[in-house]
Specification:
The chain is an alpha+beta fold. Helices cover about 25% and strands about 35% of the residues. It has 2 helices and 4 strands, in the order ββαβαβ. It has a 4-stranded mixed sheet with strand order 1-2-3-4. β2, α1 and β3 form a beta-alpha-beta unit. The longest helix is centred in the middle third of the chain and has 16 residues.
């Protein structure tokens, strides 16, 4: 009914250590099942799994409101986790 893909990307902000980053992509729910909470449940479970294995997660979307209500924060891309400030 719903699916998402997580790709590991290694980022290194200037002067910082390398970060294991989860890039979330291809998030979708079949139209007949949209609005029933399947996508939200998938993203909550995914966030829980990402939290244990990655320093930060990010995604790009045309629907930031959907992700923001699930705890993702807006910026140039949406992200989950603590940003490192230089």
């Amino acid at each position: 009914m719903s699916h998402a893909l997580v790709t590991t990307r290694w980022l290194q902000p200037e002067g910082q250590p390398v970060l294991k980053t989860a890039y979330v992509d291809a998030v979708a729910t079949l139209p007949a099942y949209q609005g029933r909470g399947y996508g939200s449940a998938l993203m909550r479970q995914l966030a829980s799994e990402i939290e244990h294995d990655y320093v930060i997660a990010c995604l790009e979307t045309e629907r930031p409101d959907f992700y923001e209500r699930l705890g993702w924060k807006s910026g140039a891309v949406l992200w989950l986790g603590e940003m490192i400030r230089g």
